[in-house]
Amino acid sequence: MTETKSPYFGHLTDRMTHYREAVLDKKPYIDAERAILATEAYQKHQNKPANLKRAYMLQTILENMTIYIEDESLIAGNQASSNKDAPIFPEYTLEFVLNELDLFEKRDGDVFYITEETKQQLRDIAPFWENNNLRARCGVLLPEEVQVYMETGFFGMEGKMNSGDAHLAVNYQKLLEHGLKGFEERARAAKAALDLTIPENIDKYHFYDSVFIVIDAVKTYAKRYAKLARELAKTAKPERQAELLDIARICDKVPYEPAKTFAEAVQSVWFIQCILQIESNGHSLSYGRFDQYMYPYVKADLEAGRETEASIVERLTNLWIKTLTINKVRSQAHTFSSAGSPLYQNVTIGGQTRDKKDAVNPLSYLVLRSVAQTKLPQPNLTVRYHKGLDNTFMNECIEVMKLGFGMPAMNNDEIIIPSFIKKGVSEEDAYDYSAIGCVETAVPGKWGYRCTGMSYINFPKILLITMNDGIDPASGKRFAKGHGHFKDMTSYEELKAAWDATLREITRMSVIVENAIDLGLEREVPDILCSALTDDCIGRGKTLKEGGAVYDYISGLQVGIANLSDSLAALKKLVFEEGQLTPEELWQAP
């Protein structure tokens, strides 16, 4: 058994220790259930607008999927037929899944197990999805001039054509304060105010109807757990029976109604966190500023005697173990650069309040303690650092770091907040940012996300292409029009100018590719629940991909920046300043 005790931060309760080990030891299987239910929904509703089709799909899944409540858990809600199994999302692609049915168990990393029955189930639904999925639709949207970049894998877009996207945190604070009921009421008012003689309002009309469908589906999903908990309580021992009946009471209430206690708040947030990853297989769906929106419930429960610090920490550890049960299967090619089945679900604590005060509160410390006790790769924990951060809290962060499992990460308010403001984010929202995914940041509950900027432009590769007059040395194909060969260059300034021109040309091509894929995501796989819970999609009557979020920003990702800098510095010094090598000698070097 893996050691989980940490003397400084205490240790897991016995049942959470057992639960943690059970989840860690669980073999991950490929799960076809979601794929089968999604296929049924798409076949039944294939002639409906995309928003409605997606809403009915989520409804079909949530009303019919396998559910269970683990003996050790105080929280209900599962993504797949059993913990850590990976559901399949055929509306994005089945291509790599079908190609790798017999390879999943033979991988060097990210091994998944699969039964012969599951293989056949996936083969049976495959004909419906042929040329009827996101990857296929994106492929036909790509202009001819960018085909060479896709054929050679120059742009790392596989993840965006094979799956949804996320990299955001929904408005969990509003969810807890108003429940889904509040979102539903706002959508009804917005729908009633539509002037349907305006063409664009027809799409809004269907968007609002799709919101009603998914909210009702989530309510049904929660009530299924309430019913299950009551059934399990009939044969449970007295202590567990009381817990199960409380789970039933809570699941009858949230997330549709507002939360009033910490237990209700945790359950409400978990239901949504889990369902968002049933709706879409995009990763980096994050919890946002967890200690800020959760603390009022912790404070009230402690003052009323409903909870103790120990019971709060136990429920937190339960939530983090639950978070680890979410899984996603990627193609074998993708695992070479993203091993470990990472989901990048980020929890942010600390930082500053919207009125610029230190935001550390007692829950911030309890989150640290709970993460220290679980010592898991999920969720990611991020602490927002600023010059006024409480010293005691900073020391506690260091103690967690000393445990050696890579958490917490630190984000620097002194750099990030001014950067947000410079980009047009309001000052209050900038002070309310959170980490999303591995290193990105966003305003929780107000941030849309686009794949644009996600082609992972390889800077060292572009340097080689620049030096080879626009031709890729590996494939021999021309990627840029060329600005001379390196061996004929006489100055560093000439190389730098050629690099700049080549980068601009290739960046333009990446924007074309990304726009096409982003358009495919908008048209084919709108995420209705995620959109409804992000401001101001309901107010604007648009999904996230249509520009419904308050901040619909694009951010770029480049790779190899440090290697590029080192390479340019070496070329400048050794070739053009000191003359230790001529350009010809360097280019011909083995």
Automatic annotation (TrEMBL):
Residue span, PFL domain = 14-590
Return the broad EC class.
transferase
One term of GO molecular function? formate C-acetyltransferase activity
Keyword Cell cycle tagged: no
| GO cellular component annotations of the record | cytosol
Q: Which Pfam families match?
A: PFL-like
Which domain of life does this protein belong to?
Answer: Bacteria
InterPro entries recorded for this chain?
GRE, PFL_dom
Q: Keywords, A to Z?
A: Acyltransferase, Transferase
State which Enzyme Commission number(s) the record gives.
2.3.1.54
Gene3D superfamilies (UniProt xref): 3.20.70.20
What name does the UniProt record give this protein?
Answer: Formate acetyltransferase
| Organism (species) | Streptococcus pyogenes serotype M12 (strain MGAS9429)
Lineage, highest ranks first: Bacteria, Bacillati, Bacillota, Bacilli, Lactobacillales
